[in-house]
Amino acid sequence: MKSVVVFVITLLTALMLEAVPFPEELLWFRPEWALLVILYWVIALPFRVGVGFAWFLGLMVDLLQGGIIGQHSLTYVIIAYTCAVFYKRLRMYHSWQQGFFVCVLVSVNQLVDFWVDHYIGNAEPTLMIFMPAIITGLLWPWSFIVLRSVRRMYAIH
């Protein structure tokens, strides 16, 4: 029971961080908090947290940001599935190497988001779409340490 509560609290925290308003000039530097949290849980507990949780969290991000319903769900499912397939390999890497992998996965998320936004006419091509992926990859080692310490503190297995 406490594992479910801790998991829900981490997801709610990620959703609250997603809702924090950013100045217009800094929007490109906003990390993908929800994706960061779901990636950690999929790598840490791949048999308990998977594609279904990623879909649900993506749906919550879509509702929170007021975008097209299913846009984040699609990419979160693809990314969670990729992590679930490679979780044994990812556990063997150092956290900075995992951060590079996270950067690549978040880049996929950013590309799909850009593609959908460009299709509906809300985005222009720029390389800045990859900046959230870089920021999220750089934040991975610290978020990994925090989430792992929370998981160990509450003995979640």
UniProtKB/TrEMBL annotation:
Membrane topology, as annotated: Multi-pass membrane protein
Location within or outside the cell: Cell inner membrane; Cell membrane
Any matching Pfam family: MreD
Membrane-crossing residue ranges in chain numbering: 35-61, 73-90, 127-147
Main location: membrane
Top-rank taxon: Bacteria
Alphabetical keyword list: Cell inner membrane, Cell membrane, Cell shape, Membrane, Transmembrane, Transmembrane helix
Summary of the function given for this chain in its UniProt record: Involved in formation of the rod shape of the cell. May also contribute to regulation of formation of penicillin-binding proteins.
Record-stated family: Belongs to the MreD family.
Name assigned to this protein: Rod shape-determining protein MreD
This protein's encoding gene: mreD
